[in-house]
Design brief:
The chain has 231 residues and is mostly helical. It has one domain: Farnesyl Diphosphate Synthase. Helix content is 75%, strand content 0%. Helix 2 (29-44) packs across helix 6 (143-163) and helix 3 (51-76) runs parallel beside helix 5 (117-132). It is globular. The N and C termini lie far apart (48 Å). The relative contact order is 0.14. The mean pLDDT is 92.
Length: 231
């Protein structure tokens, strides 16, 4: 696969205008959905559920990760698969708009309900630039930072959004989501490298694993919502 395009990836739609397809691809929706699912699972651990807060934290991460962080990743990466279709100005607009809306929603809940969410918001904002934009010469663009920022903190965010505290149960869950994130990033890096070389049975096999991890996590979150909603 050429470095300048990923339009034939499994998560990119085969229909619609070119820029629409590229934009959907840039968001890496199955992977974003996995991260959003971590926030939902964290939320579902709370003794009582405020469903507006579940929706809010999902939207916050959907915007901040799905749009802003991935646009920043395209800006910071040496290989710019989407840069052929979106220039730097376009990508910076995505970064700014996604973060402005996400942090505006978060600010409302921080001010009126869950002030401790601010700590997670500051950390996640730092990683959007430190990890995704690859500041500090890319020293934070590591598997460990990926696991912490998009595997552990989302669970904390979901639970804190409901309770304004962090207890042992979300800590235990975060150990599991960290493991899932670790397996995901390891497979993803191997998959992308194989795709750059050729499309063969090895990359197809890894693609199946990535689908199982992402869609499996989303399914578990959906089941958790159903269980809590019917209690």
């Amino acid at each position: 696969m050429s470095d300048d395009t990923r339009l034939n990836e499994w998560f990119v739609p085969k229909f619609g205008p070119l820029k629409f397809r590229v934009f959907i691809g840039l968001m890496f929706l199955p992977y974003t959905g996995m991260c959003v699912s971590f926030t939902i699972l964290g939320s579902m651990l709370a003794p009582t559920i405020s469903w507006d807060r579940v929706a809010a934290i999902s939207i916050i991460y959907g915007l901040a990760l799905g749009i802003s962080a991935h646009a920043a990743d395209s800006l910071g990466s040496k290989r710019k698969p989407w840069g052929v279709y979106f220039n730097s100005k376009d990508l910076w607009k995505m970064v700014a708009l996604g973060l402005i809306v996400a942090y505006s929603i978060a600010a409302y809940y921080i001010i009126f309900y869950v002030p401790n969410l601010l700590a997670v918001g500051v950390l996640e904002g730092f990683f959007v630039f430190g990890y995704n934009l690859e500041l500090f010469r890319g020293r934070l663009h590591t598997d460990g930072c990926f696991i912490y920022s998009w595997g552990i903190l989302p669970v904390f965010a979901g639970y804190i959004m409901q309770t304004n505290i962090l207890g042992p149960i979300p800590l235990l869950l975060s150990a599991l989501t960290a493991m899932i994130s670790y397996v995901h990033i390891k497979i993803s890096r191997q998959y992308k490298e194989l795709r750059r070389q050729t499309v063969d049975y090895r990359s197809k096999k890894l693609e199946i694993y990535l689908k199982i991890i992402s869609f499996g996590t989303i399914a578990i979150a959906a089941i958790a919502i159903w269980i809590r909603a019917t209690l």
